Amino acid sequence: MADPKGFLTTGREVARTRPVGERVKDWNEVYVPGSLLPIISKQAGRCMDCGIPFCHNGCPLGNLIPEWNDYAYREDWSAASERLHATNNFPEFTGRLCPAPCESACVLGINQPAVTIKNVEVSIIDKAWDSGDVTPQPPERLSGKTVAVIGSGPAGLAAAQQLTRAGHTVVVYERADRIGGLLRYGIPEFKMEKSHINRRIEQMRAEGTKFRTEVEIGKDIDAAKLRRRYDAVVIAAGATVSRDLPVPGRELNGVHFAMEYLPLANKVQEGDLTVSPITAQGKHVVVIGGGDTGADCVGTAHRQGAASVTQLEIMPQPGAERNANQPWPTFPMLYKVTSAHEEGGERIYSVSTTHFEGSAPQEGQTVGDVQSLHLIEVEFKDGKLEQKAGTERVIPAQLVTLAMGFTGTDQANGLVQQFGLELDERGNVARDDDYATNVDGVFVAGDAGRGQSLIVWAIAEGRSAARGVDRFLTGTSALHAPIRPTDRSLTV
Predict the structure, then answer these.
(1) Could you tell me if 353 and 247 are in contact, meaning their C-beta atoms sit under 8 angstroms apart?
(2) Which residues of 209-221 are buried (b: 16+ CB within 10 A; e: fewer)?
(3) Where is the FAD/NAD(P)-binding domain (predicted)?
(4) Which pTM value belongs to this model?
(5) H-helix or E-strand spanning residue 284
(6) pLDDT digits (tens, 9 = 90+) for 436-447
(7) Which of 270, 315, 356, 468 has the most crowded CB, counting CB atoms within 10 A?
(8) Max CA pair span of the chain
(9) CA 69 to CA 475: how far, in whole Å?
(10) CA gap 409, 235 in Å, rounded
């Protein structure tokens, strides 16, 4: 155990963020560099090393949290990094982006603020990189088997790294121009600087993983031909079909999916563009959707110099404390104030968009530009969403981003049809307990099989699918498989 009295003598303290006025002028990560190390050992000492660590249940990766908390408390950073990497390929990703269901399940959180598990995690891995403890781990021998991984998000990268280390020759195919999937083009720079992805990719290259960018399976390469070329295939293409909002005025210029808006802002940071073709500068911005993607749009709009930012959510505003029907250790629905929300803007709950209004088309335009959004208050009655008469109002909107989630994997490119894949009742690629699809030698991991989920679940799926592939290729496997395809979050 780290500090037997730590949870009694030390209060919870989290990473400090840079002043709002400073950080909205750049795209660097919002946290004060180096602010965690002076405090993190004492924070790790708040871990009670409880008899049944429910943080393990909250985390689908099964991270060995009490163990690396103990090492962090003792400042044995090398041992802490080894324990951290035993279950997680990319802790610098989860330490920055995961909503930390482990903290919701922390035993200390029953009646005190939970251990800052996420902050301890990111401190360990950042220290490990700085100390040179993160090194390539190439396999001792090659199996002679080849695997294609379709998609380079967290699920695809985790599967690829595990299979490479098991001795298989792995090629990752990515349709974008850079590796990383939504980590690269869906997550803004201020939440995770892309240098963290770049150095992991270099580690994976040194281990033997090969990468092919700007290749879309289904369009550039026929899926059936790909299957014949490799001994096994892992589909980790994500759930990239955005949920639309079919209301009058949807066709107006200036109404975009979040995943049309966010990647362009990231391309500016990559140096590909000088200015984003879709910019919030000087505009009244409305973000429809109250989740993390919506918050990413809010923070991006602030940095582009929006005149105003309003975020709409159809559900009621959550409370600041756990509801009685969401008891510990489940993951509660709480009112979240992200770094983007700290930077300004208005959040409106329990409203639904009825239609958009726009200007008349100018010369050369087929439709006009969006100018305003009409909304109405809604409430749930008998399990149904009903509009409240007399609550209509209009708000200015010169840029609208739709961040209402995703509905499934892309089928327009022909990948699903060319493989002949079966889908489940929710439109995801169906798989068995080994993550295998109905097509021999073809496996699926991540959101393509699970549906829209969290980064920590994607990495867990990638690791688990890798074990299924390894068993398929060799008859046995020593790879770690933390979850089954049917496992779900610890919720009510």
Answers:
(1) yes
(2) bebbeebbbbeeb
(3) 146-319, 381-462
(4) 0.96
(5) strand 284-288
(6) 999 999 999 999
(7) 468
(8) 73
(9) 36
(10) 10
